[in-house]
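Chapter summary example: a protein plus zinc ion.
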Amino acid sequence: MSETKPISLDQFRKRKEKEAAEQYYPGKLVWLFCPKCETLEYTEIVSKNGRMHKCGTLVEEREVELDLRAEITMTEYNLEIINALLKKNSGFKLIKIISKSLDKALIALQSSEQTYREKLLLAAGMNIPLYPGNIDSLKDKLPIKDINPLGLIISEFRFEPEKRFNLKPSPRKK
Ligand SMILES: [Zn+2]
């Protein structure tokens, strides 16, 4: 009685598209803490044999496995928000001092997001497509840990890294 139903080309194409849209890009990033300088940094370079900080001290390391595609998607979203805020801020040139210092803060945030994006691409060793859809529709898929007052997403990887080393909150960040 059983009859194998042939899959239509259209169904096949749809299934492939769905798979591509959902594909996970596994990767690793490493948090590094120098106990002497009390600095926290992250790197895409995994080192099995440990490494020295520039001060000559052996750093503590925490390897974190993550979905590079999810991180890139959140970072691109953050960059869009920052760009919109920079644009908006440039319309308030009358309050020059406030606008200047806000610009400076936004540019620092922009640079930190761009650096993160670069490291993710290096960790992947290739270009990574963003997850399709807007951020609201992706909320269950992305490891969003917090949203800061500007509306920027803080992913699980970037949330309170000092806790990974059992430190008090916010040592000097490099
Ligand atoms: Zn050091």
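Key point: Helices lie at 9-22, 68-89, 96-124, 135-138.
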